[in-house]
TrEMBL record:
GO CC, alphabetical: membrane
Organism: Bacteroides faecalis
BP term (GO), one: mannosyl-inositol phosphorylceramide biosynthetic process
Top-level taxon: Bacteria
Protein name (record): Glycosyl transferase
Coiled-coil residue windows: none
Pfam families: Gly_transf_sug
GO molecular function: mannosyltransferase activity
């Protein structure tokens, strides 16, 4: 019998400069409400640093050498899920209904971005790390971590003068490249969540929603959704 994804929700926010904004606190409450029997863990800087030093001290130097904080925030979420399992959720997600039924027979789940984003980046599909769920010690996460914390990856981090390098070193393109490197059998153990379930809005629709201009397009987009990703992009600030 396969292991079940642990009932733990993880959310991270670096509080060394600004506290968690009120609108993110409200969205976090939607996850606590919809998952009353799940443990909720809020990871601040102190807790994240303590976690790595205790469980992954071999990665501490590279973790602190990344030029951008977002690379650390990407990397820590992989380590947390690999060690503890559960579901990681960005703070710019609103829960609409529990994902329990969707996750119950899965081992590792990563979200696909809307098809319109693929055209922008000229990719056949895009995997992101905004909402992920996994059992502990899953092979896909293991491979991601090995790539993210490689010396080659750290060197690559300093080849660009803007944060686009994040996609190549800790973000979407790492996830896609590692997934494409899996065997057919290994891929079958990774569930790529359709955009309609948790990424129902693309960037333009998310912009409309954030302005409060709710219309029939948005209503139609969420008909199958368990959650809404609003793409606040606070990491780029």
């Amino acid at each position: 019998m396969k292991n079940q994804i642990p009932k733990i929700i993880h959310q991270i926010w670096s509080d060394k400069e600004i506290p968690l904004p009120e609108h993110f606190l409200k969205m976090a409450d939607t996850w606590k409400y919809d998952y009353p029997d799940w443990q909720y863990i809020y990871w601040n800087d102190y807790k994240m640093n303590s976690f790595i030093l205790e469980h992954f001290p071999q990665y501490w130097e590279i973790y602190n050498s990344f030029p951008y904080d977002i690379q650390r925030w990407d990397a820590i979420r992989y380590l947390i899920l690999y060690k503890m399992g559960g579901m990681y959720v960005d703070f710019d997600f609103e829960s609409l209904k529990p994902l329990n039924g969707l996750l119950c027979d899965k081992q590792c789940c990563f979200p696909q971005e809307p098809i319109s984003h693929c055209g922008i980046f000229k990719r056949n599909f895009i995997i992101n790390n905004s909402l992920m769920a996994s059992v502990p010690y899953h092979n896909y996460l293991k491979n991601i971590i090995e790539k993210v914390f490689s010396k080659e990856n750290l060197e690559l981090s300093f080849t660009a003068r803007n944060k686009d390098i994040v996609f190549d070193t800790t973000g979407q393109w790492v996830l896609v490249d590692v997934y494409e490197g899996l065997s057919t059998e290994e891929r079958s153990d990774v569930y790529l969540i359709p955009p309609s379930y948790i990424n129902p809005f693309d960037l333009p629709l998310a912009g409309i929603a954030k302005r409060g201009s709710w219309d029939k397009r948005l209503e139609y987009s969420i008909k199958d959704a368990y959650a809404i990703h609003y793409y606040f992009g606070s990491w780029t600030d």
